[in-house]
Amino acid sequence: xxxxxxxxxxxxxxxxxxxxxxxxxxxxxxxxxxxxxxxxxxxxxxxxxxxxxxxxxxxxxxxxxxxxxxxxxxxxxxxxxxxxxxxxxxxxxxxxxxxxxxxxxxxxxxxxxxxxxxxxxxxxxxxxxxxxxxxxxxxxxxxxxxxxxxxxxxxxxxxxxxxxxxxxxxxxxxxxxxxxxxxxxxxxxxxxxxxxxxxxxxxxxxxxxxxxxxxxxxxxxxxxxxxxxxxxxxxxxxxxxxxxxxxxxxxxxxxxxxxxxxxxxxxxxxxxxxxxxxxxxxxxxxxxxxxxxxxxxxxxxxxxxxxxxxxxxxxxxxxxxxxxxxxxxxxxxxxxxxxxxxxx
Length: 344
Ligand code: KG4
Ligand code: ZN
Description:
5-stranded mixed β-sheet; 344 residues; binds zinc ion; binds 5'-O-[(R)-(carboxyoxy)(hydroxy)phosphoryl]adenosine; 10 strands
């Protein structure tokens, strides 16, 4: 276990993207994503279709990742996979594939929590320096909105989370009301660039402490848009940039406000943003501004590591490998999986 260089093959299949990566310690040698266009026509992820697509895409995706890594199969030291949280059928496809690979190669198996993967993506070798422990992380994805106090690569304390919907889900549902294609987050982001964020005033939740709520905002967006469509049926299209800018502005201000409050209580020098919504240009800019105002360092992953990808799973697995944390072939998937508190 004291080899200097560890090569990990990682597989991610928790939602609608099949992804495989090969890492050499903190460095990504290859990353291959097969995204599933099939969900677009349904305006959201259809779990059964997602599992079927994973079945189809898994073999070629892993094969290509191995080929592009330039490594031989025998040079792989461990096989990692996403154990949860996520869609059960989708998780099962990746898990069984990873187990078969680990068994066939006679290498250890490492199950990773998807949310820990998002957070540890900050340690993938890139342009910037990684955050220093302890740090304060804001995870914003399609299914989660969490503030996490991270004291080492295995210890994650959730200090605030959403009581209902996630921020990514709010972007996606608002986009659906606007008849934009799925996933809606990137579409709203794109249109918001041309709009005025002060044009529409959507509800701001008043939730105590560090928790979040987005269901009231979602309802407010729905009522406002329905009324607008009734009163100005031919103006929706031309108002899209203003509507999107206002929706984005409200979601971002909720997130930044809680991050600010968390910083009052947790003495972090580094703050990190993770999850698919960290690709949002408005959120990225506001997060950097917040760090500047508070005199802390902001870390935002490069776009490729913001949305779901296997490189972040490989990165999290690397820390588990170094700590000697391996999983038996009998390890189950967990559709609902809490963040770990392992200690390092
Ligand atoms: O982390 P992720 O890839 O998958 C989950 O684990 O949920 O996050 C997906 C979410 C979707 O809701 C998607 O709309 C959102 O991230 N997203 C964005 C942007 N890119 C992805 N939301 C706002 N702006 C973006 N640029
Ligand atoms: Zn994710």
